[in-house]
Design brief:
By secondary structure, the protein is of the alpha/beta class. Strands 2-10-9-8-7-3-4 form a 7-stranded mixed β-sheet, with helices on both faces. Strands 1-12 form a two-stranded parallel ribbon. A two-stranded antiparallel sheet has the order 5-6. Helix 9 links the parallel strand 8 and strand 9. Helix 8 packs parallel to helix 9 and helix 14 packs across helix 15. The longest helix has 33 residues. The chain is globular, with a radius of gyration of 21 Å. The protein starts with 11 loop residues before the first helix and ends with a helix. Bound molecules: pyridoxal-5'-phosphate. Pyridoxal-5'-phosphate (PLP) binds next to helix 5.
């Protein structure tokens, strides 16, 4: 059977990672892969996570399956983290949450639910977006198209073009939005823009699917959840894919949740029933380890405060790196060409380089960035900022 399959080239970022691994130069620099790194260049296990993990392991008496909905205290905590304790949609019983293997699992389950509920619904993602959105959502059988999003020369959202494109969508279409820290551009909507977008979505009967993979790494835990809370207040239905990979550093533990905000309590119960059946068909029960760690942190006020403080330090480090990199590039280029980096949010920015310059960065300077010229600002050690600025000048000057 397998001889009928065609060999596959590694996907974009996988190829960058392979090239980085094969590079023997000791000065090589990985700004491709999208993980947070601290000052020493490592992706740490957060101290609160380590402590919660030890407590959880000491207490755990069984490895029997968790239920179909996953770890319920975890789900309740994620719902509160995302929507806030007093959100009216929660108070009205309009919200259900199911634990998933990472944000990817949440996106896939949301897409499967859309297929079930709205056969043929059109889904649009921002141009550009995280490259995995298209195969993840399209793999569920949905048609995925794009809407204009990024104003590259300004490094901001091309909001008028975004609104104009969404205005033309048929009612029932699904709009994938990045809740905060847009990947790959780092360009987020302002609060006024989110309000205008919410008005359009409500008026045109469009369903937002909000991908929240970086809550806490933009402006803070509550601030980053502001847009999704606002949508859930103003719209009858919202789907949310939440990930604990970045904000708890639980990448490999595959920890996330899909949240469905529905029109009423009856619809919420139906949505939960379908989400559980959909999950049953793919992974049956989600992995518990990461979720149990998060639930342990949630249940212990001291651990929770420790985690939030660690996350805030990570956030502040990325924000400071942005300012330093923008200043170094301004000095090196003698022009404001990269000033936009300072005004963006989260771990990523697009440098706007062509494929030749991206290739040259790797082959001549041992600096690896994604093929679309996305750099991971959190992956940039402070002593390397000057080197990156000089290197960029030599390939893009
Ligand atoms: C925009 C976006 N959405 C979702 C994810 C999925 O994260 P997870 O590792 O939790 O599946 C990522 C991870 O890089 C991401 O960047």
């Amino acid at each position: 059977m397998f001889e009928t399959l065609q060999p596959q080239a590694p996907e974009g970022l996988m190829a960058t990672m392979a090239a980085f691994a094969a590079d023997r130069d000791p000065s090589k620099l990985d700004l491709g892969v999208g993980v947070y790194r601290d000052e020493s260049g490592t992706t740490p296990v957060m101290a609160a996570v380590r402590a919660a993990e030890a407590a959880m392991l000491a207490r755990q008496t069984t490895k029997a399956y968790v239920g179909f909905g996953g770890n319920r205290p975890f789900a309740a905590f994620i719902e509160e983290l995302v929507l806030g304790a007093g959100h009216p949609a929660r108070a009205a019983g309009r919200v259900v949450t199911l634990q998933t293997p990472g944000g990817c699992g949440a996106l896939r389950l949301a897409a499967d639910l859309i297929v079930l509920a709205g056969r043929g619904a059109r889904v649009v993602v921002s141009d550009p977006t995280w490259p995995n959105h298209v195969p993840l959502i399209g793999g569920a059988g949905l048609n995925v198209d794009t809407y204009p999003y990024y104003d590259a020369p300004r490094g901001t959202v091309a909001f008028e073009a975004t609104l104009a494109a969404l205005e033309r969508l048929a009612a029932g279409s699904v709009v994938v939005l990045h809740g905060s820290c847009h990947n790959p551009t780092g360009a987020d909507l302002t609060r006024e823009q989110w309000l205008a977008l919410a008005e359009l979505l409500a008026r045109r009967g469009l369903l937002p699917l909000v991908d929240l993979a970086y809550q806490g790494l933009g402006d803070g835990l509550d601030a980053d959840a502001g847009p999704v809370r606002l949508l859930a207040e103003r719209l009858p239905e919202v789907l949310i894919a939440a990930s604990c990979s970045k904000n708890f550093g639980l990448y490999r533990e595959r920890t996330g949740a899909v949240i469905a905000v529905t029109a009423g309590a009856r619809e919420a119960a139906i949505a939960m029933g379908h989400l559980q059946l959909l999950a049953r068909r793919i992974w049956s029960f989600p992995p518990d380890h990461g979720a149990a760690i998060v639930a342990t942190i949630a249940a212990d006020p001291a651990l929770k405060a420790q985690w939030a403080a660690e996350l805030e330090r990570m956030r502040a480090r990325v924000a400071a790196q942005r300012l330093k990199l923008a200043a170094a590039l301004r000095a090196e280029f003698g022009a404001p060409r990269f000033d936009f980096i300072a005004g963006q949010r989260g771990m990523f920015s697009l440098l706007g380089l062509d494929a030749r310059a991206v290739g040259q960065l790797a082959s001549e300077h041992h600096v690896y960035i994604a093929g679309d010229s996305r750099i991971n600002i959190a992956g940039l050690p402070e002593p390397q900022i000057g080197r990156l600025a000089r290197t960029l000048r030599s390939v893009a000057g």
